[in-house]
């Protein structure tokens, strides 16, 4: 837990969220400002700043988080025919919360390349 980290506080239940999934490594909740009919934020419970800040063993956690996206997608009929998983790493990519997270989006079609 990092001091004053919004997502650490959400994972601990200190700040309320609409939880959709939790296990020993992962916490997932609805995005407060959804960009698709279903927009879920998936985080590791361990505080990791971003993809450039992995320590030894964190690759396993990141793989676990990514795999959890597929498990969570099964909960959402909107994702039956596909979904998008996005990580924003760093300010230029649009990262605003510096606790690594993956966006899981579904329920509409998505353009490529992303904006
Ligand atoms: P980023 O821009 O860092 O990739 O994504 C951060 C995401 O967290 C944004 O989509 C934003 O809407 C979401 N977010 C920020 N604050 C909160 C909050 O307090 N609760 C929830 N549920 N989502 C949040
Ligand atoms: Zn954190």
Strand order of the largest sheet: 1-2-3-5-4
Number of strands: 5
The helical percent reads 10-25%
Molecules bound to protein = guanosine-5'-monophosphate, zinc ion
What letter string, H or E per element, gives the SSE order? HEEEHEE
Largest sheet: 5 strands, antiparallel
Please state the average pLDDT score. 97
Quaternary structure type: single chain
CA-based shape: globular
* Stretches with pLDDT under 50, minimum 5 residues: none
Number of helices: 2
Structural class: alpha+beta
Q: Which value, in Å, is the CA radius of gyration?
A: 14 Å
Estimated share of beta-strand residues: 15-25%
The separation of the N and C termini measures 32 Å
Give your account of this protein's structure.
The protein has 115 residues and is α+β, with helices and mostly antiparallel strands. Helices cover 19% and strands 21% of the residues. The protein contains two helices and five strands. The protein has helices at 6-11, 58-73; strands at residues 19-22, 26-30, 38-44, 84-86, 102-106. It has a five-stranded antiparallel beta sheet, covered by helices on one side. Guanosine-5'-monophosphate is lined by residues 6, 17, 29-33, 41, 88, 94-97.
List keywords for this structure.
globular; 5-stranded antiparallel sheet; 19% helix; binds zinc ion
